[in-house]
Amino acid sequence: MVPASANRSARVETPDSRDLFSRFDTFAHRLLGSAPSRYGFALLVALASGAVEYVATPSLQNPAFMLFYPAAFFVAWLAGLGPAIAYVALSLAVVQARLVLLEGGPLLPPYAMGLRMVLFGMVSIFGAWLVVHSRHLAVAWRTSDAHSRALFDQAAEGIFIADLEGRYTEVNAAGARLLGCGPGDIVGRRIVDFIPPEDEARLWRAREALLAGGTQVAEWRLRRADGAWVPVEVSAKILPDGRWQGFVRDISERLRAEEAIRRLNDSLEDRVAARTAELAAALREMESFTYSISHDLRAPLRAIDGYAWILRHEHAQGLDAEGLRMLGCIEESGLSMALLVDGLLEFSRVGRLDLQFARVDMAALVRKAAMDLEIGDGVLEVGELAGVTGDPRLLELAWRHLLANARKFSAGRERPRIAVASRVEGGEAVFEVRDNGVGFDMAYAAKLFGVFQRLHSAEEFPGTGIGLALVKRIVERHGGRAWAEGRPGEGATFSFALPLAGP
User: How many domains does the structure of the chain reveal?
Assistant: First the structure.
């Protein structure tokens, strides 16, 4: 349970007459709230001071006349400048009347007496103005102090103020609730009473840093009244009078949320790692299965091809035209199947092969692949290509499939053209193979790099549908990406990007 006193702030009180004076001041101004009451008060003070001066003073030379100034300032403070001016005029009139009627006339020549009265009046009015101005300043200060006290008391965060020796002098209600006790249980005690012993040296280091100027924000632990430790965030600074001021916020909920997020992230990382391991295992199994199936298919394919060869060369005379046609279909299908198996084996081998990185001259790889494919200089144009770090064997294979693809789809042109270029942008080397072939519809661009994905029939453009998938796999194993752009009848551009720093 938090004590009821925790809902009130506390400070070290010092004997001071300001509260009594403030009460009197408030009472007097409430009593003199209207103009008639203020001017009536000025009249009463003028008569009273005149009577006192008359009784106590036989002549103007007596110091008792100096009662005139305090009375004027008293009226100015309580009633304002207007009643104070009225008081000065009435008092001077009363003095003049007393001199004329009771003293037989002034003791000084008229001009000297008049000058003296004017000087008394001017000094009194000026003094009254200063008093009124001072009162306005005092009222503004009291109002500001009251507002500051209200903000201090009603702040949602704990506010602690300590003296130069690190002893608390003020604490607000939120600070008391934070420590589970009343403000009176905190004021007068030292900061080190509420922090762990091992943090004491850190506390004095923080004070030295604060004295150097600025504000410090740091996390601490404070001991509650029940002995429990509460984590807090403290924003501290040194006040102009040298005391410490700290805004203290309980961060228990934030730390619990951060811990929950950390545990969630750890569990997510574990789950992602487990899932990644499962996918990697499944991929290895699939590659192994693909390799095994492809390898095992070679034997029956060789048998089919062998028997077809026997039929063609030893029993052809026993076959009619339809039989020979069907034998041709068997041979073509066997060849096509053999190419597919070879493609699958190559695709699987690319995924299983250990990469051996080295600095690669891409222009040399392009020329070697073009030579193997017998693509002449009249067809191929190779620009200056950026060098990269990668596996030369696989990158040469990628170039071979890209060039073969460009040659195949531009072969029907009167003047087939293939251009290879590169550029560097965003930390990547981007390579392009551009042809003037049949092109393709961009709506089907996503299918181009899939296994066995074809946009044209085998009769129109023969192939297995594995070449571009191999290119994509090789590029991704190097930490890159591949894409294609084209338009029907306007050629196509196949691009891939590799990081300049290597994978």
Answer: 4
**Rounded-to-10 torsion of CA 127, 128, 130, 131:** 120
Residues 376 and 474 in one domain: yes
Q: Report yes or no on 291 lying in a domain.
A: yes
Pairing of strands 418-425, 481-486: unpaired
Please list the residues that pair with 161 across neighbouring strands: 170, 245
Phi, psi of 11 (to 5 degrees): -150, 160
> How many of the other CB atoms lie within 10 Å of CB of 161?
20
Structure tokens at 23: 């009460």
pLDDT in tens, 27-71: 556 666 666 766 676 666 666 666 666 555 554 444 445 566 666
Backbone angles phi, psi at 172, to 5 degrees: -90, 180
Among 105, 122, 154, the domain-final residue is: 154
Please tell me whether residues 299 and 368 are part of one structural domain.
Answer: no
pLDDT at residue 2 greater than cutoff 80 = no
Query: Hey, how many other C-beta atoms are within 10 angstroms of the C-beta on 134?
Result: 13
Residue from 243, 218, 244 nearest 233 by CA: 218
Same domain? 133 vs 172: no
Are 404 and 467 contacting, i.e. CB atoms less than 8 angstroms apart? yes
| Beta-ladder partners of 248 | 158, 234
HEC assignment per residue over 310-321: HHHHHCHHHCCH
Distance in angstroms (rounded) separating the CA atoms of residues 230 and 347: 61
Which residue type sits at 30?
R
- Please tell me whether residue 73 adopts helix, strand or coil conformation: helix
93 and 190 inside one domain: no
* pLDDT > 90 in the chain, percent: 11
Q: What is the pLDDT of residue 140?
A: 61
3-state secondary structure of 374: coil
Do 495 and 361 belong together in one domain? yes
Residue 323 is part of a domain; what is its CATH number?
1.10.287
Domain around 115 = 32-154
Q: Is the Cβ–Cβ distance between 183 and 159 less than 8 Å?
A: no
344 occurs within a structural domain: yes
Task: Let me know whether 455 and 372 are in one domain.
Answer: yes
Residue 114's CB is within 10 A of a number of other CB atoms, namely: 13
In this structure, the answer to whether residues 182 and 296 fall within a common structural domain is no
Domain end point (choices 350, 378, 403):
350
Residues 410 and 287 reside in one and the same domain: no
Residue 165 corresponds to which tokens in the numbers above? 């020796």
Q: Give the angle 41-44-45 at the CA atoms, nearest 5°.
A: 85
Whether 8 is in a domain gets the answer: no
| Non-local CB neighbours of 171 within 8 Å, separated by 6+ positions | 9, 10, 158, 159, 160, 161, 183, 186, 187
* Residue 240: per-residue pLDDT: 84
What's the token pair of residue 299?
């034997």
Asked if residue 1 belongs to a domain, the reply is no
Q: Dihedral, CA atoms, 92, 93, 94, 97, nearest 10 degrees?
A: 120
Tell me the sheet residues that pair with 231: 221
